[in-house]
Amino acid sequence: MRVDLFDFELPPELIALRPARPRDSARLLRVEGDAVSDHGMRELPQLLRAGDVLVFNDTRVVPAQLEGRRGEAAIGATLHKREELRSWWAFVRNARRVKLGDWVTFRGGVEAEVVTKGDDGAVLLRFAGEEPVEVLLHRAGTMPLPPYIASKRPIDALDAADYQTMFAARDGAVAAPTASLHFTDELITVLDKAGIKQETLTLHVGAGTFLPVKADDTADHQMHAEWGRIDQPTADRLNSARAAGGRLIAVGTTSLRLLESAAGEDGRIRPFEGDTAIFITPGYRFRAVDGLMTNFHLPRSTLFMLVSALMGLDTMQRAYAHAIAEGYRFYSYGDGSLLLPAR
């Protein structure tokens, strides 16, 4: 499909630079079939049914934005995927200033060697020393806020908490599964009382999620791989809930992509551990999920293509036009949507 079909105009003042406080005070746009209605996050228990399952991503964001030097050259690196215990792929600013075998010194004396350069311009960095790389990153790095936020204000101490979800448990992401940022202990308690279940899986979100689609046609775009895991007990519970009539509602496009990667043609979810580079565009047949909670996405992005595949491009263009007219807040720190396709 032509990428320009997924374009729309967004007033820049609707880009949220801080999250709602408290988190569950954010607005929620429900799109069910072709119908659109305005709600708040605290109404979610009334918008779902007993037996439904919300599937969260328990990845934890690491401080993956690094600034350093190679000699006199300033080098910026955004880690996007772990390759081995001490090695990460990174998108590097001034990549032409580094070559194989070069050492880059980051803040706090953290050092990494350039061991490989990828065809896509990414660089594989191997970190020196014996301390866990996560410890080194907390010494050297900052939270990797999306460019549409970081370009408008400095990253600060608030972001260290604001950009983590309440489910964050497993280090490895360089971008937050932002749909989960709207949840609080209080909201989860109300959902429990309403008979709405929760499950978690792990997908370590990569910085590739922010990369623009440069191709003119979706068939020519290549997704970056991300590592994910669903264990056997979780897969069994998800399949049982669906067999009993419950709906699987992915909280975030990351959860959705992993569920779909793990599902067979019969719709059953299998245990999964490894990389996925699934790219979902209109025409895709969904097998595992019955709905999606997600924030509002960039025009021409792979994530807007995904929600258009779930709900229909015309429906999502109308829903986004409504959200813009009603002043919903967009992107990572913005408001949420509940997408329930007609079945």
Automatic annotation (TrEMBL):
Keywords: Cytoplasm, Glycosyltransferase, Isomerase, Queuosine biosynthesis, S-adenosyl-L-methionine, Transferase. It is found in: Cytoplasm. One of its GO terms (biological process) is tRNA queuosine(34) biosynthetic process. GO terms for cellular component: cytoplasm. Pathway: tRNA modification; tRNA-queuosine biosynthesis. It holds the Pfam family Queuosine_synth. It catalyses: 7-aminomethyl-7-carbaguanosine(34) in tRNA + S-adenosyl-L-methionine = epoxyqueuosine(34) in tRNA + adenine + L-methionine + 2 H(+). Its EC number is 2.4.99.17. Signal peptide: none annotated. It comes from the Bacteria. GO terms for molecular function: S-adenosylmethionine:tRNA ribosyltransferase-isomerase activity. Gene3D superfamilies: QueA-like. Transmembrane segments: none annotated. HAMAP family: QueA. This is S-adenosylmethionine:tRNA ribosyltransferase-isomerase.
